[in-house]
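Pinned message: reference record for histidine kinase
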Amino acid sequence: MLSTPEVGIERFSETHWKSLRYFNLYRFAVALLLFCSALLYPSAFPVLTPHQGLQHLMLAGIYLASTALTVIVAYRHRQHASMQLTASVMVDVLVMTLLIHVGGGLGSGLGSMLLVTLAGAGLVGQGRLVLFYAAMATLAVLFEQSYRALQNDFDAAGFFHAGVFSAGFFAVAVSARLLARRVIANEVLARQRGVDLNNQTVISQRVIEEMQDGVLVLSSDGQVRQSNPRARQLLALHGGKGISECSPELAQGFVNWCQNPGEEAALVNVPASGIQLRARFIRTVSTENDVLVFLEDIGRLQEQARQIKLAALGRLTANIAHEIRNPLSAISHAGELLREERRGQLYERLLRIVLDNAQRLERIVSDILELGRRDRSYRERIDLREALPLFIEECRVKENLPADVVRLELSGRAILCFDRSHFHQVLWNLLGNALRHSQRAAGSVRLLVCDARADDQLELHVIDDGQGVDEACREQIFEPFFTTHHRGTGLGLFYCTRVVRSEWRAA
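Predicted structure (tokens):
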């Protein structure tokens, strides 16, 4: 509690200063009682003569003034705490000794007041000063008894009484000091544990807030006690809503778990957002028997699994592509050399099959290698009012299309920040799919550009008049190597998705 002196100035803790102030307030209360009793009820001290009563009143008045001064100093001057305590104890020893002498010796009962003073000093003071206080009180009592023996007849019983009090002074002072040390140690330990607990609470709270999974604390009756931001986001839990309002399935799952506790997770839906969650219930050992609920977004878990699968597949296919490109080039070159020989229609047909499939394999390998280079992005501003007409004209010439098959509709700013080569490849894949499934009549394919809801975004739609994607295939069309066309590679839409997501993150 008491730190080491620094530049001659002691530094007491706030608890020590409070103890010192309470000690001085106690002394002031005792002095006030002594003064009032001497002033208003002098008959309370029958051993005193009228002359001694006046001395008692003067001493009580001086004592009252000194204690009032120490209280003021303790509140206004927070320095030299040991000096303040020592001065207070010395004043008490002097005044109490004089009162004992005026009151007729230790038999007056005033000697017990010194025991209380030394006990208080032992709780507030430091180390060896407590023994110093006890020694000064002992010397004062023995000096008063010796002076009384010189003035009157020698009284052995009085000296024995003074010796017992002196031993009591040391015993009380040492006991109070040992008790104070124990209290100080416990206080330091409690403060340190409080700091550690607060740090642990802050860290735990931050970890829970940053978790990707939702965390709920439910009471035994299903009321939400605590929740982290992710749980409130997943359940749209705000405004004092309960889990039954956010997800009836979650509330029912909690009821079922309470009836039959187990480790199995429940799959629940959130009507407000359409999110499917996996809920795990875990009972805690709290006094309220609260239940922890961990909420995991099934869509996020599936996306993570898909990303891991695609990463492994990408590494594998990239290695395979590098390995087969050289023999594929050799096959294509050999086929071109054989084409120069004319050996009949059957020979020509078989050779055409070989070359067509070699070309298809070459295209697949190129697409796979292009996927590995998707992160090499050089973003620039693209004015779609200029770029799209040129792109449509190039596509019309290459695909031998009538001029009115592809229709362009522009509105808004029509400015895009994108890698130009990536944008060309993405749009070519989308437009190629649209042309393949359209009727190729006038206006069968529409390129629609408009501003999005966000201020800095726009939307580009590629719309065709075909039959659309079958319901059973909609969740698979963006997976690699999935295609419904006999000559497709299944990498076009997958490439578009990866490139657009990469550009979105870069933005």
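Pinned by admin. Summary line: Residues 156-210 form the longest helix (55 residues).
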